[in-house]
Write a structure and sequence with these properties.
Layout lengths: L21 H8 L5 H10 L5 E4 L5 E6 H13 L7 E4 L2 E6 L3 H11 L12 E3 L4 E4 L9 E5 L11 H14 L23
Antiparallel strand pairs: 1-6, 2-4, 2-5, 3-4, 3-7
Helix pairs in contact: 1-2, 3-5, 4-5
Length: 195
Amino acid sequence: MTILTTAPGPATGSAPATQVTPQGAAWLASASAHPRSTLAVWEGRPDAPAVLPCGTAFDVVNVPVVLGRRMLDLLWERGPGSGPAAVHRGRMLLFASPGTAQRLPALLAWEEWGPTAPAPAPLCHGHGDAVTVPPLEPGRGPSRWLVAPDTRLPWLPGPDCLLWAFLHAARGLAPVSIFGSADSDANVYDVSKRR
């Protein structure tokens, strides 16, 4: 059983970071096979995105941006907060604890999340995958940090936390019927079988 701990956020009076700090850059670089080289490249070009492997320092849960924004809002308003999160080319990248990419699809299958669900299942990037992360410095382009890494060991949500946020956000996106719900005491007749 995973125990959720509260990350710094609105409940503790601090807002999530929107710029990558040197400690956050060191954490991101720790995912690569050559962290010092990665940091050296970023020192020369802090406005360039980078491709980093998943599975050791972090996994990434990748969802459409509207759904991801709802997840992020839920995590900060009613949950424990989030780890780093970024927007890249119309998708939300939610950084998660290693192992989440393997476990989250199994949890969604247990929830019977399938083709008739109100939102597509998230793409999960783990061991053997790589993702493009936004530049360290904010700028123009298809990538930016919404919650930037700001410490050497950021708190990362696990599969249970992201499952909760995904299910609540996705079900909130379900189409609403214009007919409302049926009254439980109403007499309902099947008129399709009339003669």
